[in-house]
Every structure is written in C-alpha cells, then in structure tokens.
Amino acid sequence: MITTFSCQQIEQEEVVNLKVATVDAKDVKFKSSKGVFYVNGQVFSGEIYWTYRNGTDTLRVKRYWKGLKEGQWTRYYPDRSIQEYRFFHKNKKEGEYVGFYPNGEMKFEYHLTHGVYEGNNRAWNKDGRLISDMNYVVGSEEGAQKVWYDNGKIKSNYVIKNGRRYGLLGTKNCINVTDSIF
C-alpha cells in the first residue's frame, strides 16, 4: 500500500507541496544501487518502514529524497521505544546519532558533519557508566581521548595534539591490555 502526504518545504531549491510516498517495505520491491535508493524500479522520495514479524510494530523507518538518504532514520525496540536515531543530508551522515538501551538509558551520542565525526562523542555501558569520551575535528581524533573498562578502570587516556598522540594508549609491552590480568 502506498500513501502520500504533502511536505511544506524540503529544501529551498525544491518545489513546495511536493507529493512524497510512505511505503511499507513488505509491499514493494526496493534496492540500493551506487548510493541511490529505488522502490519498484523508480528513484524514491519519501519514507519506507519495516515492521517486526507481528506486522504491526515498527522496526525502523528510513527517509530518502530523490533516492538519497535524507532526514531522520529511526530504529525501535519491540515495545515501541526508540533504539537509535540518526540524520542524513544528501546521502551523508549529519548531526546527532543517538542510541538507547531497552530501559531508555543512553547508550551512545555521536555527532557528525558531512559524514565524519565532529565534536565530542560519548558511550555508556548498561549500568550508565561512561565508557568512552572521544573528541574529533573533521573526522580525526583531536584533544583528550578516554576509554574505560565496564568496571570503571581506565583503558586508554591520551591526548592528540597536532596529529601526535601522548599518553596511555591501552597497551602494555606491545600487548593489548585486554589480554593482561589486573
């Protein structure tokens, strides 16, 4: 089944009130080729959604504009709570990429610009303990970088300055510390 709705404005150069499709993935043939998404053989603009096996609960929703990834993509848990969401603009990852555990606690929070990491990216374990605190500039690590084990012990603690790394990298005698016994 295909339904349509009107968009007020997709981009300044686009036509106002353009019809955009919403489709259930089980009802159409879709494919991606060379970075362009097609539904029933046509370049796709709109949203496509997948459901869990029960056919009623939404698993994920993806949005496209002229076959390119565009807008918010969302994945859900079976209880309908959000598992993760991210954004795309003209086929590139853009803005926040946020994930949650089933209990609603934050799992990770990443920031992207033009498809690469930018700014502070953090991750937490199931207990809510911060396990990664990394900083990026145009996709490259820059500044303070910290990673912890689930038990809270430091795994890596270093600084990237002018492309050089200083500090604890997480290795001991050329062996990864995860192979060591504390």
TrEMBL record:
It comes from the Bacteria. This is Toxin-antitoxin system YwqK family antitoxin.
